[in-house]
Amino acid sequence: MHQRKAFAVEATVELSPLEYRNFVTDLCADRPFIEKHMDISRVDYEGVWHCILVKRKSQPGGVLVMSEGHDYPKWAAYIQDETRPEKDKTEPPNDVIPPS
Q1: Region 11-37: what's the mean pLDDT?
Q2: What are phi and psi of 33, to 5 degrees?
Q3: Once rounded to an integer, what is the mean pLDDT over residues 16-37?
Q4: What is the pLDDT of residue 22?
Q5: Are 88 and 8 a contacting pair, CB within 8 Å?
Q6: What is the pLDDT of residue 64?
Q7: Cα dihedral sign for 36, 42, 44, 48?
Q8: What is the CA radius of gyration of the chain?
Q9: How distant is the alpha carbon of residue 91 from its chain centre?
Q10: The model's pTM
């Protein structure tokens, strides 16, 4: 079992349905939208994961991405609803799992 991590969404990227499907079916591919935000995707000294939320346009939820300076997801986790109140965002609803 994977340990849950505290996180903060630093940027949101909205993709078309086709782009989103392509993204979630190949998490190991280099992505320009991750490269654009890779400088803010990190774990800070308090252990908070600063992530990019990649989602499908007009849909709740999406994939939290922590790239650790890469242009692909080093770590990714599905989040069902990014509209949870800030006080509830201490842990993602699902485990953070590295892409295979």
Answers
A1: 94
A2: -70, -25
A3: 94
A4: 95
A5: no
A6: 93
A7: positive
A8: 12
A9: 13
A10: 0.77
Tell me the one-letter amino acid at 97: I
Which positions ≥6 away from 100 have C-beta within 8 Å? 28
Specify whether the backbone of 62 is left (phi greater than 0), alpha (psi in -120 to 50) or beta: left
d(CA 62, CA 72): 16
Q: Is the pLDDT of residue 85 over 70?
A: no
Region class of 4: left (phi > 0), else alpha (psi between -120 and 50), else beta:
beta
Average pLDDT on 28-36 reads 94
CB within 8 A of 97, min separation 6: which ones?
A: 2, 75, 76, 77
Give the burial string for 21-54 (b: 16+ CB within 10 Å, else e): eebeeebeeebebbeebbeebebeeeeebbbbbb
Q: What is the residue whose two structure tokens read 């849950």? A: 4
